[in-house]
Description:
By secondary structure, the protein is mostly helical. It has one domain (2-245). The protein contains 10 helices and no strands. Helix 4 packs parallel to helix 6 (128-144). The model has no long low-confidence stretch (mean pLDDT 81).
Amino acid sequence: MEIILVLVGILVGTLSGFFGIGGGMILIPILLLLGIDIKTAIGISIVQMVFSSFFGSYLNHKKGSLILGEGVWVGIGGFVGGAIGAYISNLVPDRILQYLFLGLLFFALYRLFSSKVSESGEVKKLSSVVLFIVGFIIGIFAISLGVGGSILLTPILAGFLHYPIKKAVSAGLFFVVFSSVAGLFMKLSTGTIDLGKGIYVAVASLVGVYIGIWLKDHVHDSHHKLYLLIMYAVALLVLIKKMFLG
């Protein structure tokens, strides 16, 4: 099982760096297929997101693709919301969590597909209060499902605020730092994380994050959006198979 978890970690880390996601959207369906229950999978996912988001954000900042200013306010909101979301995940039945996760994927796929993504141009400015509220809401919803929140934030930044797609991806991964750390603290306080499996996946994901960010910097923006759409669609199919076909 350990070797499988390491390989899964490298795969998820690569996708995390390339798409700017925490990795939970991909990792949770894979863990479910491996026979791990949804709540344990959420805990493992949160551990992995902490590692990959910190390392990925560091690499993106070094390369100049990470906008820190507004991202901090969204991140603080995500931290507070993520702390609440971690408790919610312990109170909600497994089947409901699966349906919420399915709905989240459908929304992200629709939002990204319908958004006109900008490759350049000015970024709309929002007040710190609005940014905090956006982060807070996303944090509650995302961490309760074991995802970092970038699955929602990246389409919002690209579709509504006209961030260039690669900067939106970098900002989305930076948001995961805040929401996942909050989720980790809350999960540890309730003893609902399998740290053993989580560390295997998380450490291996660092290798993948480096690979994913290198790939992101060498692909055209329009192709990047297409790959995002494909990734969301695959995650949907995997989850639907698990939920309805076994």
